[in-house]
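ugh ok so i messed up the first submission bc i forgot one of the chains. this is the corrected input, ALL of the components this time, i swear. 526 residues overall. if the numbers dont match what u have on ur side tell me asap before i send this to the collaborators (the ones from the other lab, u know who)
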Amino acid sequence: MTSTLLQQLQEACMKACHDLFNSRHQHIFQPAWFELSPTRKEFEGDLTLVVFPFVKMAGASPEQTAGLIGEELLQRREIEKYNVVKGFLNLTLPAVALENEFLSALQNHDFGFDKSEEKGISVVEYSSPNTNKPLHLGHVRNILLGHSVSALLAHSGYKVIKTSLVNDRGVHICKSMLAYKRAGGRDTPESMGLKGDHLVGHFYVAFDKVYKQEVAQLFKQYCAEHAETAALDNPAGQLKELSAKASDKKSALDVSEKLLLRQLTEISNKAEAEAPSMLEAREMLLKWEAGDEETLALWRKMNNWVYEGFSVTYQALGVNFDTFYYESDTYKLGKNLIDEGVSKEVFYRKPDGSAWLDLRTDGLDEKCLQRSDGTALYMTQDIGTAVERQKDTGFNQLIYVVGNEQDYHFKVLFRALQKLGYAWADKLYHLSYGMVELPEGKMKSREGTVVDADDLIEEMLHNAEEITKELGKTGDLPEQEQKQLFRSIGLSALKYFILKVDPRKKMLFNPRESIDFHGHTGPFIL
RNA sequence: GCACCCGUAGUUCAAUUGGAUAGAAUAUCAGAUUCCGGUUCUGGGGGUUACAGGUUCGAGUCCUGUCGGGUGCACCA
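and heres the new structure output, hopefully the right one now
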């Protein structure tokens, strides 16, 4: 059913009601009252009008009201026939009208696409990975959502620019660089027979292992040095236990427990910050920021490995991007906008020089926008990139596909841009999606419970192949086409599995059951 | 403590955004098919939509409260 046919009938209904009921009272009819929905299959008819809104103005029972409207439409030859069930008016369209619709749909190459108007430019940001480890199932949800939304927007009349903001800078990158150097600095994806992103990921894990040990040791040492904690025989266990208890709503900590927890947390933070590996990583970041050539060369080399790895994964998923933004380019952006905001008095500076935005009147909080040493924060940067993108593209709509843990961040970001007075600030949208969970709970890279994207894709293709061959459905297709077939079956199962659940809700993935190819699943769609 | 999100068959998810008797898949049970406790078909059972109020002609959907689960509250990203 095209929108024109629907619209025609909607207008006809509106006119009919106007002529029927307006003689007695003046009503302003709103199109929203005339939402026509497809008739349920257990009733006769094509479209259904809910007549309850008009019962009062008709001064009749729902059945009578529906009858009046139906009769009027019939008289005007808008419909073939009608029937009434309670307050529901089921309309049967003339066969000719349907036939015409069908014929014009056949003619129309773009059927189902809304090219009726140019809706402008829509920028969709998704994927946005860190460059220190491979993509996992959480990214897959993000990527498929972003890609699908882009496709939907393109089909509905937007010019879509798909973009990704690559987080390629910061201590976390330095961690894998450091571990790489420690391991001799000679390995390459080729020599190790690994995808670049996986190789770099290994070094990140290697760093973390050493770092954890250092922290544990330091923690123990510091605890022994403190009078209050020296007597504890298992301070690490105590800390874990207490923080678990503190986050549990049902149990409350008593005063001495609270005090102990605070001390232990303080010591733990100190140990984390002062572990030799962390100090070394920070030092490396400073070198990076100072433009040290050796550090930059290593950084470029490893990042390129990761990019090559990512592009293989993207290709396997059948997605792509039009532009990339790199945080190493954008991280300084936004500072002049903070100045602008301060001079406009929508932001303010504290005596130490840090810049803030006060949103307490909006029910939010105070938010730091710039550090006292003048360097940029996540928020500073995001303000900058938004403005930059508006300059680059002139977008009419900017969609961020980002997990729902960052709901607050985007609320503040949008408010900040509004306060700066940008007219396009209300065209920003955070497509917030829920986490992908395993039966044991959240995926945690530290505990090795992440579902790797490449492994998952490979498994899907493998399963598709096995099932298809077992059913003997390959016939005598050439091998190349068989591969193509397994790919589309396997990928469709994966994509449907991910996309069928409401993006806002968290979703469950059970690796032991593997994604189904039977029943209500992807392979049956095409 | 404060803020935001979520609670729907045993399980994983729907429900045209406030419309008709809350639907699928899967699991389960019964029957058919059969070299098979596998596969494939057919049919059945399975629900006080977490709970209690309210608004409405009409509520899974909106409002209030309670309970349960999650996330966020850094001069990290």
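quick check: Chain A has a mean pLDDT of 89. that seems consistent at least. Chain A has 18 helices and 15 strands.
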